[in-house]
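Thought: the user asked what Cryptochrome/photolyase family protein looks like in 3D. I have the sequence; next I should run the structure tool and report back without guessing.
Action: structure_tool
Action Input:
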Amino acid sequence: MSKPLLLVLGDQLSFSLTTLQDAPANAVVALCEVAEEARYVPHHIHKIGLFLAAMRHFAQSLREKGFQVHYSALDDADNCHSIIEEAERIAQQYGCDEIRVARPGEWRLWETMQQRENSTTPWRLLEDERFFTTPDDFTQWSSGRKQLRLEYFYREQRKRTGLLMEGNEPVGGKWNFDHDNRQPIKAALDFPELPQHHQDALTQEALSDAKRHFSDHMGSLANFNLPVTRRQALVDLKHFMQHGLAQFGCYQDAISDSAPYLYHSRLSAAMNIGLLSPHEVCAAAEQRYYDGDVPINAVEGFIRQILGWREYVRGLYWTQMPSYKSANQLGFERNLPTFYWDADTDMRCLQRAIQMTIDNSYAHHIQRLMVTGNFALLCGVKPEALCDWYLAVYADASEWVELPNTLGMVLHADGGLMGSKPYCASGKYIDKMSDHCQHCRYSPKQVTGPKACPFNSLYWHFLETNAERLNKNPRMKLIYGSLNRMTDEKREAIRQQAEHFLDQLETSPGYGQLCHTAGYANTTSDTNTIDTDKEPQ
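Observation:
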């Protein structure tokens, strides 16, 4: 009789996982804490703490359900600290004749596992069926299409699942209510406070181990409040449905100088590691609409990010890798600005977005796209540098969701495969959507001069520098018309302003040395149009 080792990865903490289905009575379930996975980029300590605590709780739940579990902890003397080697060591220890594992969240692991299928202890790779679609489903949908646009994919997802559908027609008479979801920040808004999760002994021990092993990583665990059990994740889900969803739609693009979460759900980390399923999250939101508690624009916008965008970027990732990761169609070569690691900048919007990231391992999708992402785009930051940063600093960042969002949407480095145009904007957009500019030394109304917002000159400089690649894009026609109507004198002044700023911009050569620098701030502190291509929350 076959005796398998069932390897459960840190982002597969679901009892519905294919690996755990129909498990024979003699199967051994393995969960492995390995330093290699925590250090290949310098992951935020909240992210590491989340994985350690959630994995230990899940192992406990597996034992309570009768599974035989082997748990490799960081401090175990015989831990190989490589997920592949550790799994094979455990399989040999228990006399297992194969290793079963569901598709991981990163191509590098998937490729290595495929290469081990004929090893002494063969690997059997299974599909991860916890999503609405599989990579094969996405391949079938994309076959023969010249453009892989979200809107078309999303509509088919709605029809296939029946979410927010009345027969063959969308509820509310429209597929997309994004036009109603662009209201800027307002002083009178009152944002809900998040539930505070109790930290039991298992969680406290996990956080203590994270601090002991990874104290040189970004962040402080003093304010750690991520859900590490399914019960805690369900509390967050219920809280968002009752207190956040109704206002989420209108204000999902708004940016606050003081509030990191606004009306956002903060459920993506729990979904991405398996504590919540996308199916139950979408169903809960849909029910709030049918109960008459939440308007259609809020529910549709929220479901679109999960059923549409989340599935779409995953499909792109698995059908375009591994070549996708090396794409750099705009030829960017600049290293990451150093202040991305310590928030030491006098640009208020960037300082706040990065400080919130340092504090919480979180920034909402417009902060990522139109503040840190937009700035990196305008400065020409090379894709690998920005992708590594996003992967490192956000608790919800797995490569399958982070890479397409960063490389494709933020940097337009895939040549328009994802987005039909770059998401570039001047300081006027940030001034419109946020309350940052009133606290900033720079003026969004000035393009040149000592008080001019750097985003303004960088915006026009980016357009001019990349004109040969972008000026034939029909969605860029109007803005290039404005550039072409500028006088030579004005264009030269803008060029000099931008180039002087870029010459003074301090950058870091890479993430490898960043865990050993002294720059981390472990403190807790307090009119372009965005269309439907948005990063999920």
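Thought: the tool returned a structure. Summarizing for the user.
Final Answer: Structure for Cryptochrome/photolyase family protein predicted. The beta strands are 4-7, 28-32, 68-72, 98-102, 123-126, 165-166, 169-170, 336-337, 507-508. The first helix runs from residue 35 to 39.
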